[in-house]
Amino acid sequence: MEQLELFLQTLIAGFMLGGLYALIGLGMALVMGVMRVINLAHGDFMMIAMYIAYWLFTLLDIDPYLSVFIAAPALFLFGLAIQKYLLTPVMKVESILPHNLVILTVGLAMVFSNLATVFFTGDYRSTPVSYASNAWYLTDFWSESPIELSLSMPWTLSFVLAVVITIGLWIFLTKTDMGKSIRATSQDVDAALLMGVNVNRVRMMTFGIGMILVAAAGCLFIPIYYLYPALGRQFTNVGFVITVIGGMGSTNGAVIGGLILGIFESMTATYIGMGWAPAGRFAIFVAALVFLPGGIASIIRKRRLGK
Amino acid sequence: MKKYLPHIIFAGLCVVPLMNLSSYIMHILILVLMWSVIGMAWNILGGYTGQVSFGHAAFFGFGAYTAGILYYHLEISAWWGIPACVVILTALSLVVGYICLRLRGAYFALATLALGEICRVTTENLVDLTQGNMGIMIRERTWIDKTWYFYIILFIAAGTFLLIKIVMESKLGYYFVAIREDQDAAESLGIDTTFYKTISLCLSGVLTGIAGAFFMNYMGYIDPGVVFPLYDISITTVMVVMVGGAATYWGPVVGAVIMVFLAEEIRSLPYIGAAHMTIFGVILILIILFVPNGIVGDYKKLLKPFKRKKEASS
Amino acid sequence: MSLIEVKNVSKQFGGLAALTDVSFVLNKDEILGLIGPNGAGKTTMFNVINGFYRPTKGDVLLNGKRVSNLRPHVLCKLGVARTFQVVRPLQRMSTLDNVIASAFIRTKSKAEAEKVSLEVLQFTGLSDDINVLSKGLPLGKRKRLEIARALATRPEIILLDEAFAGLNPTEINEQIEIVQKIRTEKGITILIIEHHMKVIMAVSDRIVVLNYGQKIAEGTPSEIGHNPVVIEAYLGEEQSA
Ligand SMILES: Nc1ncnc2c1ncn2[C@@H]1O[C@H](COP(=O)(O)OP(=O)(O)OP(=O)(O)O)[C@@H](O)[C@H]1O
Ligand SMILES: [Mg+2]
Predict the structure, then answer these.
(1) Does A285 sit within 8 Å of B293, measured CB to CB?
(2) What value of ipTM does the predicted structure carry?
(3) Closest to A104 (Cα-Cα) out of C52, B235, B183, B122
(4) Could you say which ligand is closest to the alpha carbon of residue C160?
């Protein structure tokens, strides 16, 4: 019974973590799809959003969940500026080495994480919200339940909000003109150009939306996590592992990839040891590269054609 | 004249230890030579073959740990690490190549990035073999004086330079560049792209590993954070090549000189020292924007403003 | 004697059938034309023969041996060279170096590779451009560079995919001459895709016609010229265009 309890609890924790991971992965996958570039500063943008939420909480006592409404627009504008003044010019640069854009994002990551250390020191920080240790217990609802499971309130809140945002994104991508242009560009740039899509504008918007997603992820993470300047790296890794598992640029794949990674990491941490969780992340990454080079997206596609 | 430049520089460097320079300057020169080796090694794979790696710390660290583990567990001189590297790093490169080289474009870069992280996490956790975060320390270093370390790394660097020159003027070199320019075209022209990419990776990996083994002997201490870091090794390697000039013979050497001096200078400045990563990041961004082929590759472009001035004044 | 035998080859891209059950043979020393409207599957056929794509169904035989699971570089080594319709020069290498890179397939010596290269560059009329970076060449010359590179691999068979550019009468005659010289002087068997009817009719011994991925006709140029199915396929294209 205890074994089952542990397993289910780990599964739930993994599922929730996965839902939040999916948000990070989605931002990266969108940018990857439209711009063909892996943004290796993705996690560092998230770190910036987390500091915004942290200072709003510490100085003005604003609930981290509410600071989404400040952090997201801030990062959106920041993203547009970066796209306009750095990414677009670099796209035009011709050089011997490929992947200039990716290397550029590495440069950005270095700058952000270092500046954060300089300004905010390397201290670990968190936002101790009043409801941090609230939780729901299964026995409260079903007193004869043979096993006990608990749901932490901030975790649940973050997860539910992540799901809401994901659905919102899905509606945006399928129902609005801009969303449709983004998907078209992601599938085939040349075709999109022929259809009269303003690809430059689409790229700007996509990068901006990627930033909104990652800002949201930051604000959802900070109540349940802690914050330090080098944290971006870890989440960048999470993001690109998901993007690869999901299939480069596939948003559906990113959601499933996020869930898989969350559950897998949670399982590694419980059953093998905390220290190995990052190794597990890369193990699944390598496995995906070797056994499923097209990612989950390739399976989804096959299914569809099969029908 | 230009043809003899390598000979002249080599001869010049050979007499440097006779000049009674301070131990600090010798240290800087040794670091410059070591980074030249790493840069040249990366250049084979990234610059010539077009396979950008964000994980060369893995090869560097593997080399360092090969030397360290031989010393610690077998109790033999850590210098044996250098020959042992050739075998161990060929094996590692073959494994990495098998997994990663089938991948195209950014996939490969990501896989190597992951490789560096995998190596770091694994070394941290395999405490019995690697001492984990305690690191490995050589109790008695071979020499107190820097002279011999200088000559050893000088010969490694000269050998690497020569080897690359020979390779790049042979069939191998043509094949590497062909793969960089267009993999499908290369394949249809009879080039076994997977095989030659693997060769390129092996050369690059072994040479980087040798630099790592030298580092263990020279510094006398390693731990996972020192030899496997992303920014301080993997990305710095990319920068050494980008600053100097990818796919040029002298680029990595020029890049190493600049990067080592910059790093030493900036780190020693008060206040700004803590922000050295920011400065490196900004330099990286500026290089990509304005001199994407590095100082050696774009030197004509760099000279342009001066030339124009001359024309205007004359 | 058949050098290449294409047996019931089909190739699907997702839901799209680019080739459906196509069979034909390429005999030694022959020039076989492969024609069809845009999107008929001609380039795809080359990609299957040359090992870039694995056929979804069917086989390609070279000298009676199955080669449809081999990679392009192996086929090149076995003597099958190709050009790309959308040219793919090694951009930042000189014209000469482009050709040397392919000549290395049969030799380790750079001097030898260079000799072979200079000879094929002469043959294709690129002698004056050997030191130009290939991305700086005009399209016509880049197309000829494709041929030069293919020839430098010393092939037994060459697959020419719309390897010529320009349509004025002198150019057309030049093209016809080069194709014929590849066979007469070098003894290479040729499979050629060409949109320009005059060229294809003049050089081919036989012609295979594809339409919507299916073989709709095969025969001598004059038979094909009078085949009502072929004429309709082409007229249909013109009407829809
Ligand atoms: N890699 C691919 N993935 C998906 N579809 C493809 C691919 N390659 C070709 N096709 C499709 O297969 C069909 C045949 O294309 P192919 O290039 O073989 O035609 P073609 O006869 O060479 O035409 P053209 O005369 O224009 O060169 C086309 O509809 C094309 O869009
Ligand atoms: Mg075609």
Answers:
(1) no
(2) 0.91
(3) B235
(4) 2
